[in-house]
Write a structure and sequence with these properties.
Layout lengths: L1 E5 L2 E4 L3 E6 H4 L3 H12 L3 E3 L7 E6 L7 E6 L3 H10 L5
Parallel strand pairs: 4-6
Antiparallel strand pairs: 1-2, 3-5, 5-6
Length: 90
């Protein structure tokens, strides 16, 4: 199954490590540092032209880090519901 993250971006649900709300998770200094390191390493893909509301951490063996992080304009609740329902398109 695949989940639509925004714009023309879909990822396989079996590769998703986690779906996170940006407002809640960026309160933590550790999360902010992780996001900064991921961006510096080139592991962040912004799939929105708007202010992102969530990020999705995905296993990506092709990356040196083994992970890719997608910023999405969709809420974490919407993305979670899509993943649970097998929602494919936006």
């Amino acid at each position: 199954m695949y989940i639509h993250l925004g714009h023309d971006t879909v990822v396989a649900t079996d590769r998703i490590i986690g779906i996170f709300d940006l407002d809640n998770t960026t309160v933590s200094k550790i999360t902010r540092e992780y996001l900064a390191r991921a961006e510096k390493a080139g592991d962040v893909v912004n799939v929105t032209d708007e202010l992102p509301k969530s990020f999705v951490l995905v296993r990506d063996p092709a990356r040196g880090s083994g992970q890719r992080l997608y910023l999405s304009q969709l809420s974490s609740a919407t993305l979670l519901r899509r993943a649970e329902q097998g929602f494919i398109s936006g």
